[in-house]
Each structure stands twice: as C-alpha cells, then as structure tokens.
Amino acid sequence: MLNADAWARLGELFHQATELPESERTTFVHAHAGDDPELQRELLALIAADTDATRRLRDPLQHAAEATLRASDPELPPGTRFGPWALERVIGSGGMGRVYLARRADGAYEREVALKRVRTPALDARRHGHFEYECRLLAQMQHPAIAQIHDAGIEPDGHAWLVMEYIRGQPISTWCDQHASSLRQRVELLVKAGEGVQHAHQKGVIHRDLKPGNVLVGNVDGQPLPKIIDFGIAVETDAEGEVSGGGTPGYMSPEQARAGSEADARSDVYSLGAMLHELACGVRPQAGTALAPSQCLQALPAQKQRELAALRSTTPRVLRRELRDGVDAIVLKAMQAECSVRYESVSSLLDDLRRWLAHYPPRAAGRVRWLAARKFVRRNRLVVSATGVVAAALVAGLLVTSWSLRQARQEAARAKVTSDFLASVLDSVDPAISQDLDKTLMLRVLDDASKRAGRELAAWPDIQADVELLIAINQISLEEYDRAIAHLQSIRELAASRPDALRFQHLRALQVLGDAYLSADRLKEAQATLDEGIALAERSQPEYRWLLLDMQSRQSWVALAQGRADEALRLARGAYEGFAAWPAGDDKRQDATRRYANVLSFSGHHDQAMALLREVIGQHTRIRGRDHPLTLAVRRDLAITHLQQRDFATAEPELQRLVAAYTRLYGQDSGYVAGARGMLGSALRELGKVAEAGPHYRAAMEWHIAHSGPEAFSSVATRGNYGNWLLAAGRAQESADELGSVLEIAERTLGRNSAVTAEILRGLADAELALGRLAAARQHAAAALQVMQDIYGEQNEAALRDMRETLQKVEKAGLQAQAHL
Questions:
Q1: Where do the TM regions start and end (predicted)?
Q2: Which of 77, 233, 602, 817 is 20–30 Å from 276 (CA)?
C-alpha cells in the first residue's frame, strides 16, 4: 500500500504524464517510477483508466458543447450586415462568440476585417454605456503589435460586435515551432508583443486573456511581427449579468479565477509569464505549481526533451542551461501567485527580458554570482573564447583572469567579476559535465589555477579563498582526495589568519575538508575537522547555522562508520529536523534528508528510510534528471536499503543500471563504479548467480585497495564481501583464510565495536561451519551478535536478524553433531 508521500508523488506524476501524448506515457512512467514497482503499477492503472474514460466521454461532451453553441449563437449566413460590414465566412469561435471574415459592403474601400459577434444577452443601459466606453478606449490604441479596432456596435437584439484588423498569422507558439525559432528569437517576439500590452496599459486597457492564440505572428516586410488580438474581453458577462474578468486556464492569473477579484495590469504580467514558460520549454504551466521551465523540461522523457530542444534549434543540455541563465527567474517572478510580489508592471518585466537578451542577469535572479559571471562571458565574446571543451574553457578562463586582474588594479570591484568568471569556468570541471575528457589535463589546469589564484588574487583574500575552495571541490569530484586535502588545509590556514574577514570561508573550508577526509576513509581526521567546524559555527552569525547543520549531518556518517549507531541517529535526525523549514527542493535540505535516511536504513528502519530516499529521488529527478550524479547517489542509497531489507530481486536490476550510468559518466576506473559493482555482486550472490557475482566483488575490492590502501574502511569492507563470495563459490578454506586476514585489520583499524567487524565475524563463522570447525564457528557467530547488540541494542531485530540466524544455524549444526555421537 502506498504511503502519504508516495500518494503525493503518484498524483504529481499522473498530472505530468497526462500532459503528454498517449504514445509517450508508458515511457515516462518507466523513467520516473521505475524505482518503485508499486507506484509504477498504480500510475499505469490510473493512466489507463484516464485514457479510456477520456475516449468514452470526449466525443459526447464535444457534441453537446457544439450543440449548445449552435443553439445560443447560430452561424450567420454570408452577406449578413453589421453596419457597413458584410460577413463572408466563419474563421473562428470561442467562449465569447463567433469570429467572421468580413468586408466593407458599402464600397467605400476594400478591406478584409475580422468581425466578432459577442455572445451576450441583451445589454441594459448601464452595460451598454460600459461597452461603448471600452470601444472608445480600444480605438485609441495605435501600436504595431496590436490589431487595430475599426468599428463596433450593438444589434437591436442586444448582441455586441467588434470589427478589428484581420491578421494573417499563426499563434505565436505554433509559428515559433514551425520555424524552429531559438529561445532568443522567441523572447524577442514576446518582447514585441509585451510592448503592445504596455501601450494598452498606458491607455487604461487590460487585455485579461493573453495566450498564444491571441498573439498571432505573421511576416511583415520579411520580418516576423506579433499582433495581439481580442482586446475587449471585459464585455463578457457572467451568470449574474455582471462584467467578468475572463481568462483562459493555464494563462489566467489566480486572482482572475477568484470570485469578486478585480484584474489589473499585473494579471497581464502573469499571462505573459505563462506564455514565456510555454515558449521556453514547450510545456504549459500548471495552475498552482512553481516549477521553472528548466525543471519542467528536465522532468520529461529524454526523447521528448530532444524534440522540444530541436524545435528551438538546440540540444536539451544547452536549452536547460539557457533557461537557468535567467529565463527561469523571470518566469517565476512573473507568475507569482500573489500579485504583490510579481513584476509591478509589464514595463518591469520587459526590462528584465531585455537585460537577458543583452546578456545581463535579470533583476529577478537576485545576486547570483555564477550567473553574473556567465553573462559577463556572453557579453564579451571577442575577449573570452567560449568553447564546449572543458579544458579549452579553463585555459581561456585563466587567460581572461590575468587580463581582468590588470584592470582590477584601478577598480577593486572588477576583481570580484574576475573571480566570479573564473569560478564559473572551473565549475565545468565536474566529471558529470566533462565526461570523457582527459582527467589528467583537467587536474593540471586545476593545479595551475590554484597557483595563479594564490599569486594574482593575493590582494583580495576573500576572493582567493572562494576560488581555491571551488578548485578543491572539483578535486574531490575527480576523486583526488589527497590533492584536495592538502589544498583545503592551505585555504583553512589562510582563512584562520583573518578570522573576522574570512569567517564564512573558514567554515566552508572545514566543511569541505571534513567531507574530503570522510570520502578518503580517514574517519578520525574527519571527526576532528567536523568537530572544529561545528564549534566555530556555534560562535558565528545566525546566517551560518546551515553550515552547522550540514556538518552535523556529515558527522552522523562518521559516527555510523565508527559503530556509534545511537549517536549517528541523533546527529542525523537533528540536522534533518533543522532543515525542515527550508524549501523542499533545496540541495542542503535534500543532503541532510539523504544522510538521515541512510542512518535509519543501517539502523534497521528500512521503511522510513525508503520513504525519505524516494522523496529525495523525486526532487532531484524533477530538477536535474534521473541520471544526474546527485540523483544517482540517492538511487544507490535506495538500492543499498533494498539489499539490507533482503529484497535482492528489486536491487539487482537497479544496480545494473547504476553501474552502466556511472561508467558512462566517470569511466571504468572510478570509485563510483567500484562501489556499485560491489553492491551488485551482493545482489547477484544472494539471488544464486554466484559465478556472475565474482568479477564484481573482485573489481570492487581491487579498486579500493589500489586507491585507498589495504587498511582503509572501504578496502576492509570490500575484502569482507569478497571473502563471503569465496564461500558461496565453494571455496571454504580460501574464504576462511581471507576473512581471518581482514578480521585482523578490521579489529586494529575500525575496532571491535564496528558493524563491518561484526559482518566479517559472521562470514568467518559461516566459513568455519562449512569446514566442520564448529567450536570456532560458534565463537565467531556469538562474537558477531554481541558486537551488533552493543551497537544497536538487544531490541533492534532488523539489525540483529542476520547475526542471530547465523548463530542459530551454528548451534543447530552442533546439536546435530552431538546427536550422531
């Protein structure tokens, strides 16, 4: 049965799936719910029911709607006169009435026009005056982006009609897709349309129903020009006969949907934001959601992303980057649910769009340093040779840094721009972005960047610390832990020498250094560093509390690895609860949630752990995609939980996918690949695929020994797993020898009171039992159980289950042996 979180995820995925064509829905389900078979079954069932119901209801409802339209507003024959205008044919219809192609019937001049006959009851004197007032306002509007109003009137039966310029064009979204317009071209068209809306607002007219179908694009002198139609929607009346605000779901502002609320200029701002959302990513925004265009695009199946990107003459990756470079921020501000926090006018919205077109950060993005740096590069293409190759981009960045620093001697603020630029360039070193590029070259460029930062940024120590910290983070991403640790120690010393000016940099250096020690299996040093960081954070300003919580969360992993399960659970829970008030999609909150889930899992609370991990996977998948490194890390954690729960059939295919994904990102010689292969070996062995498991166990063990040394935590753990596999493969003596050797290392480096030591003891008991050495087997099995009881307590059945099963098996064998004496 699905829990509350899973039901929420089910609803969200169902709404996303039903926005797609039917042929793409099954692929979407497998891509976004494949980690949860029950969720996947429920989602497929809901979609099937929805599809069937839609097919059964759609035709009769459509026929009923058409019948109602015909009854209330019958189609008028050609030649019907409205003043000097004669109808030719129907060219459209909607909620307000029918639109006809018409011409002048009095021969005064030849002109095609669009005549809308508004479907309203008879207008009383008050509403008659209101309609005439609207028409006078509309006639005053003279702008290239607005369809001109030529005439208006009221029939004897009370139906109003408007005559406007006939536009030979297509809805702006259709026109852009047919011409494969780039994101920049789409924004330029929307700016032209927005200028028309701004002009109308200056005349006191609000459109109230801006949507792609009401912004038609045609060619004028070989150039695309948008024309806004359908001003005058305020003449529509509601059930009580009052003037209605109108609007179209998906583009209509929230206040327009509320009874008694009045639309103002900010309602049109919302609608322009909704149009920008659709033009940018090809997805109409859903009412009540706050997903940026890049997030909506990322949530779609890969094939759909490629199709939408191709319609914008680019690739999904480039399109997502363009959207994150300011369009996301503009859309989210324009579409705020509360009108008071939107752009205060269309003019302000247009100003931000023009800033984006000119490669300046939009004001809606706030002070985002990496965005300012990237826009700086785009504005100065002749100076900065921006390339798609990471190494070339890094070298170019360093050259520009030197140039900028010379200029910065005259103006200190420009040094900040330079450091931001260098930071944004170095950010592309992440292997998830660089993929198959030469790691050696990237490391060499990072080393050179570090030397030059120390030399050329010495006059600005805060900037130097920021840049060098980013270099260290990238070294950790490349699994160069010794380089990163040495580098972080120097940053730590630099920051400590200026305790007041560089307090934030000092805290960040300790945080990242603790993470580097943890990644390198240097647990005692990780503990000491994080202790120091937490103590410093406690003495610092309140805005640094998130660093305290983050380091406390990381400290829980150290405690868990050292066998202090209760302390690990307390630390992880405290950090998780501390971040509870942060936005659900915030990376720091998700990191703390993930660590808490892992501690819960290792403590035997598997159901609670899996619910939290699925929540984090859902957030990362929506924002970054299913195969982004952050998403993969949490998918790996969920697979580990399945292993701990002995659900090997679920774990095995997911681990196969993780091995493939990590290999694509990092290559064969990677700790990520080695870790996933080790877990895959365990799943295969438990499923009886012993021979297939062996190469994975051995590869994981050999990688960790080669890269971390034979006494590292990961080396000890993977050797223990390999020893267990030897027993499963029928090589009991080799298993006992291997586990005996690794037990000596575990007790010396990890201590007796460690879950890893307990697992090695349990495996050794199984090997001794297979060799018929019952006394030794019982001794090791009892010791394993005692260690786990000391760590988790005697009541934690999930954590103690395997140890008790092994001891019971040994004791049963002993009783059987005595019975045969």
A1: 382-405
A2: 233
